[in-house]
């Protein structure tokens, strides 16, 4: 060993010898070295693979957490500035009013103006559009980087307008996340040169939706589940794992940044609660939780109905339509002026805890203490400033009591929220719904606490009612009913870092969902319907005789096939006469045996190439060659086809499961028609409206 | 109105008049009455619909909760009896030994004997078989009522053997639940006369798996997620909602029964914990949680590998094979004798907390207090009886310390658990894995607590380490790695009713899963492989060049088609020469245009009917009529077909997604081959082993 070292260190050795030495040198512990090198190589091969999905998912999670944190940070500063300004102007009511209204108006008009100017697609939440994209419809402009910029800036301003306009950030975050995922996917494709794999794009988008929710709330599990429920009707467990990984990274970094920013000592949930874990609720309270679920379910139906009506009304009303079309920013400004005037603390705002931010509203509602007990033991004067340790005081108006404020809040915010959702700027509609539900729950909880001041059973040990638990259940039930999801139950637990009430909350959410799903489409489906985006309605099998409907009854028989024997003129005539996206290719026009299908744009490209070729040949006076569509165009083999006897249900399931746009119908090998999403949609609508299906 | 009343009450009115009156009577508030009647009718129409799924899901949930509770109740009584007997024999070591060993031996031999006698399919956990059933393979004997009885009785006895044999109940419960679901499904079919809908059966089975887990632990959300992850590779959101509903009903009733039985004051989680919610863990501890995840992941690989090896060894070893084949009960008895002798508290058992039941083991491990601190302040004598308030004392051997017992437990239970899983009786393998993981976590946690007695940062406020949190993370990570699921993270939170540690636990589970999924098939997949049940392996796309493989390379071209022009003899020759389950039907043997497919048993039935017909006609000396297979047999239309250029990945996805058993391959309308699960499995195995695919 020592000899080897001496030789290596000797400067007199020539280059050749040194190379030889490097090959044959007797290094210490050759076996161990080999093993270690082998291990390192193994780790390198398995961990550091360029283009591996996990890296991109990790990057996606971290990026979203950074954006979420930066956005929150900015918004908090902006809100603080607004509050500081408002408090400085204590002496003049007029100045206070001006500061209260002008600030949010400036924010919303800028948000609307900027986002509409840069990219008109950036308005709204973005979830309905993403849902449409995931069904296979191409809406490319929704996933551009320009849109991303507009959305981030616009959202920051929308949120900075605070609880006056009462909007959140979940939807836009899902949208932002999917835009980043698309961009990362493009980088991945460039790096790995794996241009073929379209599946990856889809998988990334699904994971992105989960990351969006997770990085908003620091809630990875419910983020994944929420995105699953909202986004798709079928789910691969593989994608669920990816979503989990990315969402955990996102949520972890998001909470980590809060610790680094000294907001918290360590990683804990977003909203701290102190519910009694030993005895969170008494058994008979379960019934009240179920009643709360029923209330939330019914109210959500009314909300969804009114919301759709108002959006429809705005699209019909000539004056508003003109205003919105010409000056979107002015419309936003006017709406904000109305909302801000109402929420001004000097006027009606004092009856609806309007000085609290969105986060403070939720914190105050999740308070484990009963406000009834608290207000008996405190002096309830209107304070000049918001006391961060006693947020509940904002709800306790000296003459109006907190029952009054809660009821007034419910009444006013109902239409104010619906009005706010019509503003064409980037904003989410989940957080306000969550808060609204928490208010419903809190009201019920406080009423129960007043009726049973010592708890329901009250034998021996006192187990007083915890109204915060009801607020939790109300938030989960109402938001779950509006979005048609069950995972909101888990979301509120991840938000509060405890799950003492998990069974009653689940029951409330189930009941509310049952009612809402029975009578109304979800918020996102409703938006898709109002915005006239393509979608496939669900079959409500029980009411209508849908089980007996077969493909034969609704397929489109008006079909034109490309024959293998077609010449240039035939093909040209076919393509000019019909504008289907896909043409079936048959062996010959008599047998009609389906061979495959060809995209319209492929055929058009082929025709153009042929014409040029023809011109060139004519110029050179060459004999015209045989035109062969079949060699130049890519003919897709037929993987899926329907039979005329296939049931509507099965066809629907296939379109849904395989994200198809069209399918040919063949009977005994012969093509007899085709079914696209349009035909399916039409037959389902006909059935729902009681009409019998009409063949197209 | 008064007149009406008088008339109605008058006895002199004739029957005719009374009928007339009933029709025309002027009742009070006709409009309100009509509305109320309308409402009631509406509720009746919408709620009380015979055969509605929700009722069956509800019944399923309640039934499973009742079974779970009754089983737990019986097992607790049996275990108490055993403990009482053991404690009564305090004076004689020998008698204690006999009582310690004979009781579990009696239980396991009875369990094995009874279950094997009634239904040999009732052994083991049942999850692997259910997983196979959900891929579309018919294993009917696994879902019979006879099997249900054998499983329930056998499981009760297995569990009554206690922590000696260290087995649980999750797997059998999933199995029991699916058997009940099948039975309920049959009732539903009878009631609604909806014989067609095979989908419902599948949907009920998926929900049943969720109910099984939920009613074991009272954990509905993780029950649903666990069943989704374990059971299938794709799931419909619709089924997820059904699962949620049924699982919530099951979990709620299960916890409700505990309250009615005065075990608890109100509905709370199964394992109470008192973790510090304000500061559950310090930021640097996250790294230790990740290290714990790595340890659990690696150990799970070793465990899975050894487990598969032992099961394989037993199937090869001539002596054991003979013993198991002849006398399964004797084999169980011998194994139990060995295990019970080792765990006898007078011998090695004192070093592995063997006096605790499974539930007590988990409770003691989730304790929020540090055993290091506790053992300093207490006298650690070996107690005659188990102290239910200080279960941790069982772990603290006076001379061996708790580090020794934890390590010894890990070492011994490792092979004892693997040995126990070879006993052919109904028992679950999830709970022991969960406990084993908790022990790993606890050990790591206690070590960390010793190294950092005042917490890691220890500036100002003391935030001591909570070893219970590590136990939680270890349990989730190890059980998650063994079963390849992430939902165990949620399960431990639902078990303990809090989620203070949710991010570090998720990280640990993710890391452990990444390692385990990389190197080993899951426990259930491993069992499927060892038991040689049909299954479709996953494609590990990165290692092998699977993206370039097309159907052409591995399809089975040895195909025989039924021609429309075939006569009786031709068909008979075909059917006798080949025993495919499905035959393709072509237009004629030259064109080979695929028209449809026909089941073998349909053809056989047809041939039998034809022969009888023929005999009858010959007897009557009638002219032989034309044989028409096409009118008498049901020819299934071809909905899915592959093209030779379809990629392996896409074909695999279709088989997986659509639960298919076979698909025909057609090129330009002509059938050229077929692919079944066998071909797919073979090509994937070939690729994994580095062989190039061979056409069959």
Automatic annotation (TrEMBL), chains A, B:
GO terms for molecular function: metal ion binding; voltage-gated chloride channel activity. Keywords: CBS domain, Cell membrane, Chloride, Chloride channel, Ion channel, Ion transport, Membrane, Metal-binding, Repeat, Transmembrane, Transmembrane helix, Transport. It is found in: Cell membrane. The keyword Amino-acid biosynthesis does not apply. One of its GO terms (cellular component) is chloride channel complex. It is a multi-pass membrane protein. CDD domains: CBS_pair_voltage-gated_CLC_euk_bac, ClC_1_like. InterPro entries: CBS_dom_sf (IPR046342), Cl-channel_core (IPR014743), Cl_channel-K (IPR002250), Cl_channel_volt-gated (IPR050970), ClC (IPR001807). Pfam families: Voltage_CLC (PF00654). The chain crosses the membrane at residues 54-76, 152-184, 204-228, 240-260, 287-306, 318-342, 400-421, 433-452, 472-493, 500-516. PANTHER family: CHLORIDE CHANNEL PROTEIN 2 (PTHR45720), CHLORIDE CHANNEL PROTEIN CLC-KB (PTHR45720:SF3). This is Uncharacterized protein.
């Amino acid at each position: 060993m020592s000899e080897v070292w001496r030789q290596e260190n000797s400067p007199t050795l020539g280059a050749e010898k040194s190379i030889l030495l490097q090959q044959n040198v007797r290094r210490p512990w050759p076996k161990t070295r080999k093993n270690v090198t082998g291990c390192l190589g193994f780790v390198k091969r398995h961990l550091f693979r360029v283009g591996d999905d996990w890296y991109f998912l990790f990057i996606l999670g971290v990026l979203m957490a950074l954006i979420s944190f930066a956005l929150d940070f900015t918004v908090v500063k902006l809100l603080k500035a607004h509050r500081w300004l408002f408090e400085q102007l204590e002496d003049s009511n007029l100045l206070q009013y001006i500061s209260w209204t002008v600030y949010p108006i400036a924010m919303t008009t800028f948000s609307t103006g900027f986002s509409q100017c840069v990219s008109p697609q950036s308005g709204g939440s973005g979830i309905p559009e993403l849902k449409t994209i995931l069904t296979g419809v191409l809406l490319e402009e929704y996933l551009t980087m320009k849109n991303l910029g507009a959305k981030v800036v616009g959202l920051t301003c929308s949120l900075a307008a605070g609880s006056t306009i009462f909007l959140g950030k979940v939807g836009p975050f899902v949208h932002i996340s999917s835009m980043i995922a698309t961009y990362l996917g493009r980088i991945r494709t460039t790096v790995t040169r794996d241009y073929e794999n379209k599946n990856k794009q889809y998988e990334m988008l699904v994971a992105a939706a989960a990351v969006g929710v997770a990085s908003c709330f620091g809630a990875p599990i419910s983020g994944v589940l929420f995105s699953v429920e909202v986004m798709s009707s079928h789910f691969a467990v593989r994608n669920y794992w990816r979503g989990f990984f990315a969402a955990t990274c996102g949520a972890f970094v998001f909470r980590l940044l809060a610790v680094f920013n000294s907001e918290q000592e360590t990683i804990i949930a977003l909203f701290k609660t102190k519910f009694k874990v030993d005895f969170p609720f008494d058994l008979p309270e379960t019934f009240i939780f179920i009643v709360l679920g029923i209330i939330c379910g019914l109210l959500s139906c009314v909300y969804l109905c009114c919301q759709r009506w108002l959006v429809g009304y705005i699209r019909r009303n000539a004056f508003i339509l003109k205003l919105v079309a010409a000056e979107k920013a002015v419309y936003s400004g006017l709406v904000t002026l109305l909302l801000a005037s109402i929420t001004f603390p000097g006027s009606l705002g004092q009856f609806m805890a309007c000085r609290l931010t969105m986060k403070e509203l939720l914190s105050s509602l999740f308070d484990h203490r009963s406000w009834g007990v608290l207000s008996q033991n405190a002096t309830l004067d209107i304070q000049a400033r918001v006391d961060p340790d006693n947020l509940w005081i904002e709800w306790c108006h000296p003459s109006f009591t907190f029952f009054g404020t809660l009821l007034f809040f419910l009444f006013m915010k109902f239409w104010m929220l619906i009005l706010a959702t019509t503003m064409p700027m980037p904003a989410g509609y989940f957080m306000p719904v969550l808060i609204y539900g928490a208010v419903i729950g809190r009201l019920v909880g406080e009423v129960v606490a007043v009726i049973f001041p010592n708890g329901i059973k009250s034998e021996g040990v006192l187990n007083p009612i915890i109204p915060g638990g009801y607020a939790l259940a109300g938030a989960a039930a109402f938001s779950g009913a509006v979005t048609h999801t069950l995972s909101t139950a888990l979301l509120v637990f991840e938000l509060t870092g405890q799950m003492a009430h998990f069974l009653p909350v689940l029951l409330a959410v189930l009941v509310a969902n049952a009612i809402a799903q029975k009578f109304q489409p979800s918020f996102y489906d409703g938006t898709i319907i109002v915005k006239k985006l393509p979608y496939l309605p669900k079959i409500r099998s029980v009411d209508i005789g849908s089980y007996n409907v077969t493909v034969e009854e609704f397929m489109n028989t008006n079909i034109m096939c490309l024959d293998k024997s077609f010449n240039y003129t035939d093909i040209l005539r076919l393509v000019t006469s019909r504008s289907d996206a896909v043409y079936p290719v048959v062996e010959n026009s008599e047998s009609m045996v389906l061979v495959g299908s060809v995209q319209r744009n492929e055929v058009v490209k082929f025709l153009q190439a042929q014409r040029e070729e023809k011109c060139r040949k004519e110029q050179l006076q060459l004999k015209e060659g045989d035109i062969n569509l079949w060699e130049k165009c890519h003919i897709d083999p037929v993987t899926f086809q329907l039979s005329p006897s296939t049931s509507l249900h099965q066809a629907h399931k296939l379109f849904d499961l395989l994200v198809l746009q069209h399918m040919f119908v063949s009977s005994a090998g012969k093509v007899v028609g085709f079914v696209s999403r349009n035909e399916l949609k039409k037959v389902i609508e006909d059935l729902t409206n009681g009409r019998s299906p009409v063949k197209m």
